[in-house]
Amino acid sequence: MSKRPRTFKLRALHSQDKYGVAGKNCQEVLLKGCQKFQLPISGCRLCLYEDGTELTEDYFQSLPDNTELMLLTPGQAWQGCLESRFRDKSSYLRYSCESRIRSYLKEVNAHASTLDPQLRAEYLKIISQMCEKLKSVRYNGNYFDRRNKGRERLCTAEGWFSCQGPFDLDACLSKHSINPYSNRESRILFSTWNLDHKIEKKRTIVPTLTEAVAEQDGREVDWEYFYSLLFTSDNLKLVHIACHKKSSHNLNCDETRIYKPKKRVVRKRDARRRQ
Fold first, then answer.
1. 115 and 172: one domain?
2. Which of 12, 70, 151, 250 has the smallest CB count inside 10 Å?
3. In Gene Ontology terms, what is a biological process of this protein (predicted)?
4. Domain limits at 159?
5. Residues 148-199 pLDDT 10s
6. Is the dihedral of CA 150, 151, 155, 157 positive or negative?
7. Are residues 119 and 227 located together in one domain of the fold?
């Protein structure tokens, strides 16, 4: 079976440009990167933009799509952006979680372009409410922050994360665990873990939300319910790549929660009778 091309965001030292590059292996990405930046391939190499770890074929196969890479020529070195951009590891892990949630929001928002203008306007009103909620909770970055004291934290105070198992199981049978706070290699591996939607985002949640907006007929869509499915641990499970099942989950949204309950109008006569 041929390998699926992976997409990366590629930078070069001392350049403001950034390109999207796809390839089935490390050498192919390196070749295309050198062509983009007009560099001779001899002696060039790739490393992770995040922490400077040099890319090998084994690492290449474990990286998720859209990982940022740095293209280095002979004699150049890159220590990574972690130390310069973030105060500490907790700040970096918060950012990592926020980035995942932001990417989900971007996908949900992009769906609006497929809708007709009137439906699009109503859909975007709901997404705007979700966006404001996400901003208020800082895109749920607390999930990955070991300093957080709340119950929403997904790791121990020492920074250990445990796989929560596939969507159709209550626990991870393999007992996968990792501490991305410990070293660079663990952070790289942790980037391959998934915040997986039990009720699927593209197959189920977004289509159900779109249908709810189209058929609301005076009813008010319960955007907070959809928000919880899209962006919170109510519907997200942290899973090791081996526990991430990409087959259809066949789970549906709760039909009783799609719209907010209608408020009961109390008539004046009924109110007087109660007095």
1. yes
2. 151
3. apoptotic DNA fragmentation
4. 89-257
5. 988 899 999 999 999 999 999 999 999 999 999 988 778 888 988 999 999 9
6. positive
7. yes
